[in-house]
Amino acid sequence: MALRHFLTLRDLSTLELNQIVQRGIELKRKQHNNEVFQPFAGKVMGMIFEKSSTRTRVSFEAGMSQFGGSAIFLSSRDTQLGRGEPIEDSARVISSMLDIVMIRTFGHDIVERFASYSKVPVINALTDDHHPCQLLADIQTYVEHRGSIEGKTVAWIGDGNNMCNSYIEAAHMWDFKLKIASPKGYEPKQQFLSEFAHCVELVGSAEDAAVNADLIVTDVWASMGQEEEQKIREKAFADYQVNERLMDLAHTDCLFMHCLPAHRGEEISENMLDHKNAVVWDEAENRLHAQKALVEFLINENLKKDA
């Protein structure tokens, strides 16, 4: 049996994704009930960060601790990766000492190359093209509040970035309709739109996307590494703010999500995080629980492979 990784949502089947979401809900219940559950005592996760993070680092590190294991934080400043050691060499060495690795980096090819030489499961904790861990948390949040997302309508409003790409894949995996509203020049890559045309539609305005939506999602206008484009993007995205007026166009029980950090007064109105249908804080917490379910799945699959 081949070693399992989680580099994009499509590395797992829909059945496996749903199992992880349900397991995340169960692990959340255990944690809220103060139940000690430590199946991975002695297991160690390596956390490679070439991009800074709050939620990703806290959720993975806390999750491994709650599982009875531990996590090692590795930044490019502290390792030979940052000094030009080939990714393939680093992967061979690092994975020989660990039980699982997560990587938060820039080019998606970096996690692909690392995974191809790794002896243990590799998790994509964000690349320029994908953010699949956030989607696990988002889907878990939707399921907790509204039940199955299958057949629902989701509106992505804003930049056609890595989050948007993962929502496109999610629409395919979970069988929902995705309407994307992005300013001209900021749409998702055509390769994603073409491949998933059966479940994804590019619409002309934020309002078009919001109409009859069951979930509205957005992200910052300028992602990490795009700060110098801030003023240009503010002008381009001026008509793509998610606000109370936009929510009124959606179904009355439409949820609102944002992967955070949020810039109030830019991609969202000042009070949008406090909207009655906003579930952003649950969504943020669910990074912990969904990722614990993912880590459990991957470690156990690897143990099966070696049995």
Automatic annotation (TrEMBL):
Record-annotated Aspartate/ornithine carbamoyltransferase carbamoyl-P binding domain positions: 4-143
Pathway annotation from the record: Amino-acid biosynthesis; L-arginine biosynthesis; L-arginine from L-ornithine and carbamoyl phosphate: step 1/3
Annotated GO CC locations: cytoplasm
EC id: 2.1.3.3
Residue sites binding carbamoyl phosphate per the record: 53-56, 80, 104, 131-134, 259-260, 287
Keyword Cytoplasm: yes
Entry similarity comment: Belongs to the aspartate/ornithine carbamoyltransferase superfamily. OTCase family.
NCBIfam families given in the database record: orni_carb_tr (TIGR00658), PRK00779.1 (NF001986)
Protein known as: Ornithine carbamoyltransferase
